[in-house]
């Protein structure tokens, strides 16, 4: 009497569920496919020289060298950009939570941050380029850092805001009840509780910054040398990939794949370490 | 009597600590007020930035906006900067074609995946899904472009296009008119994968806002899970889902690098998904070097950027407003 | 005793934590059975195993048998939606579906396609709203949203909704604890009326309610059934020390 009957609705459910599982597997398999392709195509050309040397003469024609200029360039760009973004992001995020909460102004600020987050990086690049020209700055590490910091700012604030908003209200109120001012609560209590989340936010923004090409395309320039000052142009890994793939020489294209692999590995390392760090630091946080 | 003793004890302790008096309440409050004002100024930054970007783009594209009529600019199909012809229409349509294909390809599987993760899967599957989605979102656009070059373009060229040529040739939008795999469909596929994590995670969050009590109420009278989803859960989340799709579309509109590498960069008004196209971001990225030499070229490219910006701002603001309301505290 | 539900060797786990230990009970037909005990003793958990709701929570494990009319509802080939049709649940917090009053009551019938035409649906809705004691109050505004009702009315609506799928058994998970005293009284009266046709199993944390409603009592402590029997016997002459302590401690 209660046996499973082949009712239409059960069949429909089984069908839909099947579709769902297939969809999920496609998404998961997609990730695997992408990583696998990059690995397989990039690995052959990946060697020690690629990672430790700068392009020698004729690099783009097939002669020797590596992409150290781009690797370091990207690290400098993203490092500087992240640092600069952090200086503004943390106060904004803290202010949002501690003073603004769910107020109207808070909503406007959050809306503008979301809008900034949605602006494509090429627009930031163009904007940066115009400002650069206007103040007479040439394509340089500094310009790239500033534009990247603009790109990373909304990402970082959003990620921090997400973490800070989840903070148990009791914690904040306990601190306030002891007589701290809101500033003190923000600096001493919120920051420490939110430390893992803040670090994750920083790493997340760094990862996005290092992978972006459109913003640094106009502003950081390109060079085969490792920059020694902020005013010099700098190479970046995404652009290195792009330029190497643009040549007609298979050897150079192979090296392009290898450069893409290097970039992917860097991003994977950042992603995995942010997970690891956040789980380690979560020891002290109040749940 | 007692109170007197209390105060003295306090004083003694502090003196023992080497401090003469407590950081006075006045000083701490002054600190607080100063910080409050500084921070307030800092929170103005985002809005100032948006305004600055928009204004500068408008100002710098003014030369071309004032020289040509909107009709010539936006509906014109010829792009010959040397001859002073700036017709954006091929680029605008190219942008829309790639974005629409990308969104259409992404939405069904992503909605299904989000539903699966929210309504059916075990917590184990969900804990697997999170890192997968995070990784997909972290992969740099240029790497997606490389993957597109290596895997998708050949796939289109060797499998999809011949298939379409054989079976779908009579349908205009599937007509294969060029031999390479560099096409709108290739760009669409790459875009779809790029926006997938966004759609899945936002729709998942939206589904999570439906209280379990409602699901239980439906299940308790013997409804199947799919009946529950279809009749109780989904109707409640439709606005949010639409907003999620619009948000993803706004991201797809602006994606430059990955699309540029696989879409062919041929300025034509597309007629089929197998045609190559030239979206606005690619136009800007490819030509920045030549900008300065030809008059009005820079204004034209900045106008392209302006068009892009305005489109994206509209999509973005609308969808964000809806999502902020739907997700409330969980908006991230 | 005319046993409607028989539970044999039931064990339930939330992850590694055991919530039900070797439960063996019988629930009589067409009587009100009350499951009582201190909080955390597993009463709700036990209730949820009776309509296979427990498995909706992540990471739960259930072993043993729950036999309704000697058929194990956990058997492999059993359709869980049919189980839930036969065993209805009235939850603690009223949860009207986001639809009109009419649609709420008709929902279950539509799901199972129990009627043939609009007329019989309308009649059925009226019938069940009357049983729940709600018809007089809402008969004129059937198409208003269900959320416009007061909380007591919502709970009665949920009752009507559950009855509409023609269950044999009605479970109640502290069905009146979220209601004001008058609504609570109303719902209790309905339940007592219903026992003429349905087997009713209620979880409650108030001894007074248990005494008012119970024909049969199951007392639980820390996941185990300590004592079970007809209400008169258990309340007046508890066999176990624990039961006695609970009964006395409640005053």
What is the structure about, briefly put?
The complex is a heterotrimer of chains A (287), B (332) and C (251). With 332 residues, chain B is mainly alpha-helical. Chain B is 75% helix and 1% strand.
Query: Which spans of chain A have pLDDT < 50 for at least 5 consecutive residues?
Result: none
Instruction: Briefly note the CATH topology name of chain A.
Output: MetI-like fold
Briefly, what CATH class of chain C?
Answer: Alpha Beta
H/E series of chain A: HHHHHHHHHHH
Mean pLDDT of chain C: 91
Instruction: Determine the fraction of residues in helical runs of chain A and give it as a percent range.
Output: over 70%
Calculate the terminal CA-CA distance of chain C, rounded to whole Å.
31 Å
Structural class designation of chain A: mainly alpha
> Class of chain A, according to the CATH hierarchy?
Mainly Alpha
Total beta-strand segments of chain C: 10
Which protein chains are joined by the largest interface, and how many residues does each one contribute?
Answer: A-B, 90 and 89 residues
Portion in helices of chain C: 25-40%
Main pleated-sheet profile of chain A: none
CATH 4th-level superfamily of chain A: MetI-like
CATH superfamily membership of chain C, which one? P-loop containing nucleotide triphosphate hydrolases
The helix/strand series of chain C, from N terminus to C terminus, equals EEEHEEHEHHHHEHEHEEHH
Q: Supply Rg of chain A.
A: 24 Å
């Amino acid at each position: 009497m209660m046996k499973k009957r082949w009712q239409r609705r059960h069949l429909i459910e089984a069908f839909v569920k099947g579709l769902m599982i297939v969809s999920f597997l496609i998404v998961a398999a997609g990730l695997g496919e992408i990583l696998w392709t990059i690995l397989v195509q990039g690995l052959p050309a990946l060697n020690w020289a690629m990672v430790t040397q700068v392009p020698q003469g004729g690099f783009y024609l097939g002669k020797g060298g590596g992409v150290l200029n781009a690797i370091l360039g990207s690290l400098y760009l993203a490092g500087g950009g992240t640092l600069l973004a952090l200086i503004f992001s943390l106060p904004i995020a803290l202010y949002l939570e501690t003073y603004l909460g769910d107020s109207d102004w808070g909503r406007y600020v959050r809306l503008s941050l979301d809008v900034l987050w949605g602006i494509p990086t090429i627009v930031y690049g163009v904007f940066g380029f115009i400002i650069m020209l206007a103040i007479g700055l040439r394509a340089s590490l500094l310009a790239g850092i500033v534009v990247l910091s603009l790109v990373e700012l909304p990402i970082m604030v959003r990620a921090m805001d997400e973490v800070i908003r989840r903070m148990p209200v009791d914690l904040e109120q306990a601190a306030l009840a002891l007589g701290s001012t809101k500033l003190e609560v923000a600096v001493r209590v919120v920051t420490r509780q939110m430390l893992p989340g803040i670090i994750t936010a920083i790493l997340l923004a760094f990862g996005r910054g290092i992978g972006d090409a459109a913003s640094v395309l106009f502003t950081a320039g390109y060079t085969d040398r490792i920059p020694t000052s902020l005013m010099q142009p700098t190479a970046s890994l995404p652009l290195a990939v792009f330029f190497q793939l643009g040549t007609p020489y298979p050897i150079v294209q192979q090296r392009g794949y290898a450069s893409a692999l290097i970039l992917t590995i860097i991003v994977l390392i950042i992603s995995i370490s942010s997970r690891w760090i956040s789980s380690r630091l979560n020891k002290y946080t109040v749940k | 009597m007692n109170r007197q003793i209390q105060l003295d004890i306090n004083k003694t302790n502090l003196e023992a600590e080497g401090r003469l008096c407590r950081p006075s309440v006045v000083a701490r409050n002054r600190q607080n007020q100063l910080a409050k004002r500084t921070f307030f100024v800092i929170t103005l930054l985002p809005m100032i930035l948006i305004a600055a970007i928009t204004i500068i783009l408008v100002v710098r594209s003014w030369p071309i906006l004032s020289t040509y009529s909107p009709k010539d600019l936006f509906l014109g199909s010829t792009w010959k900067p040397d001859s002073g012809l700036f017709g954006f229409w091929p680029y605008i349509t190219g942008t829309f074609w790639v974005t629409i294909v990308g969104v259409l390809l992404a939405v069904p599987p992503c909605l299904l995946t989000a539903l699966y993760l929210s309504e059916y899967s075990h917590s184990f599957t969900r804990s697997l899904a999170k890192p997968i989605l995070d990784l997909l979102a972290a992969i740099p656009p240029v790497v997606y472009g490389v993957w597109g070059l290596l895997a998708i373009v050949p796939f289109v060229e060797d499998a999809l296009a011949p298939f379409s040529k054989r079976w779908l040739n009579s349908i205009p939008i599937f007509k294969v008119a060029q031999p390479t795999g560099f096409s709108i469909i290739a760009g669409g596929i790459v875009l779809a994968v790029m926006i997938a994590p966004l759609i899945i995670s936002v729709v998942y969050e939206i589904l999570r806002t439906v209280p379990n009590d409602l699901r239980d109420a439906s299940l308790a009278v013997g409804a199947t899970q799919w009946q529950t989803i279809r009749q109780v859960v989904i109707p409640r989340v439709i606005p949010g889902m639409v907003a999620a799709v619009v948000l993803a579309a706004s991201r797809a509109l602006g994606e430059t690098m990955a699309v540029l590498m696989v879409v062919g960069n041929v300025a034509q008004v597309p007629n089929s998904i197998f045609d190559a196209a030239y979206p606005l971001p690619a136009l800007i990225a490819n030509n920045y070097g030549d900008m300065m030499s030809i008059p009005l070229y820079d204004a034209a490219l900045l106008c392209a950027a302006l068009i892009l910006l305005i489109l994206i701002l509209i999509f973005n603001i609308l969808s964000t407003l809806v999502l902020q309301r739907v997700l409330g505290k969980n908006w991230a | 005793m005319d046993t409607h539900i028989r539970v044999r060797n039931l064990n339930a786990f939330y992850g590694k934590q055991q919530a039900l230990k070797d439960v063996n009970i019988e629930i009589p037909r067409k009587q009100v059975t009350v499951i009582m005990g201190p909080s955390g003793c597993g009463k709700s958990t036990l209730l949820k195993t009776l309509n296979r709701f427990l498995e909706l929570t992540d990471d739960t494990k259930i072993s043993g048998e729950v036999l309704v009319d000697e058929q194990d509802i956990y058997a492999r080939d059993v359709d869980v939606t049919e189980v839930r049709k036969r065993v209805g649940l009235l939850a603690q917090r009223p949860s009207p579906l986001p639809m009109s009053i009419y649609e709420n009551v008709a929902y279950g019938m539509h799901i199972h396609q129990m009627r043939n035409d609009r007329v019989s649906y309308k009649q059925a809705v009226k019938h069940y709203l009357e049983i729940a004691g709600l018809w007089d109050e809402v008969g004129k505004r059937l198409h208003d949203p269900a959320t416009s009702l007061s909380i007591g009315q919502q709970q009665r609506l949920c009752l009507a909704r559950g009855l509409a799928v023609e269950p044999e058994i009605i479970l109640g998970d502290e069905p009146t604890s979220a209601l004001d005293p008058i609504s609570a009284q109303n719902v209790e009266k309905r339940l007592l009326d219903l026992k003429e046709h349905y087997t009713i199993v209620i979880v409650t944390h108030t001894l007074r309610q248990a005494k008012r409603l119970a024909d049969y009592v199951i007392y639980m402590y820390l996941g185990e059934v300590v004592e079970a029997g007809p209400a008169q016997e258990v309340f007046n002459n508890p066999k176990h020390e624990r039961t006695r302590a609970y009964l006395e401690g409640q005053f």
